[in-house]
Amino acid sequence: MRDQSRVQILEEMRRTDGAVKAALNAIKTPILATDWRIEGEDEKIVQFVEDNLFHMKRSWKEFLREALCFFDFGHYVFEIIWDVRDSNVVIIDLAPRIPHSIFRWKMSNGQPGITQLIRTDDFTKPYAEIPMSKLLALTNDKEGDDLTGQSVMRAAYKHFKIKDTLYRIQGIAAERYGVGVPVIKMPAGFGAQDKARAEEFARNVRSNEQGYLVLPSKDWEVEILTPQGGNTHGSAIESAIAHHNSMILMTVLASFLNLGQDGTGSYALSKDQSSFFLKHVEDKCAYLAEQINEQVIKKLVHVNFGEDADVPELKFNPLGDIDFKEMSEVLQTLKTAGMLEVDGKFKQFVHSQFKLPEITDQDVKAIDDEAEQQTEIDPSLDPN
Description:
This protein is an alpha+beta fold. 48% of the residues lie in helices and 16% in strands. The protein has helices at residues 3-16, 18-33, 43-53, 60-67, 70-73, 157-179, 192-203, 234-250, 267-305, 324-336, 344-353, 361-377; strands spanning 36-39, 75-85, 88-97, 102-106, 112-117, 127-131, 135-139, 181-185, 221-225, 313-316.
């Protein structure tokens, strides 16, 4: 699990193992499903950043889907592609520089960056160098200055290898004990020619719908030898495979996906485990937003509006499904206790969370203006 061999091993794991794929999808799906936005004090800068980040050459969803591969490999790198439009410096793309292509994590002059191995017909220039200042580098569980990080599947590697071996043994056992060993009993006084014919019969036995044998006489006997009770180790192999599948999911705290597989597990336990899992994923999501803010948005704002300009931030909605009944009860309790101000922003938030018709910023202003006018006329109408 080092260097290029690590990339190849992780590629095999995520493409060939169902439990590994399920674990990765469990982490990525809440992040891909949530809504992302830009928040800041200066509306002009906010709009400028939104136009850049959410309207690049590739869609935001397409970029995000590939960016989350830093979970798979422990790292993922994008080159920030700049351009000049209408006297502004803009980002037209965050172009992926896949882990397979990274030859060295520094440039030939020793400065921070990457040396990328590229496929080209020009053998005199097989490498491309990109300085760190032009990169968005995402690292999972970074320690020290190690930009390669650690894959979320690193701890699952042992279970993947053992399970892969168990599957091979299970396949061999199914073939051996499922088809059986052909046994031919020849009549007394058989000769060398009879023995050769019997060996040919045994070699040609095939397990298919048209397989058969024509015996020379009634004194010949054929049977298929199978162990009594079949493969006695089959259930042990299946149990071991189930254990390793469970451990693979546990490495990313997604054990709740296994509940019910053996007929056990309650709704309350599933809710507790999935809630803890989402906290883990939210932490990863916060890291992603933090790195994009620091490595991309800050550079974009500083180069266009100066280093003293207000830098907006990339934000995301809470992950997971909302329990609407529980949330309604909490909001009602807080309102009754006088801890909520029911203004236009609050109504906009509630409509957004409950997927009700959208309340725009203009609607918010209209709601607040109307409430203020009504309060001036009759202070008892103040909803708070």
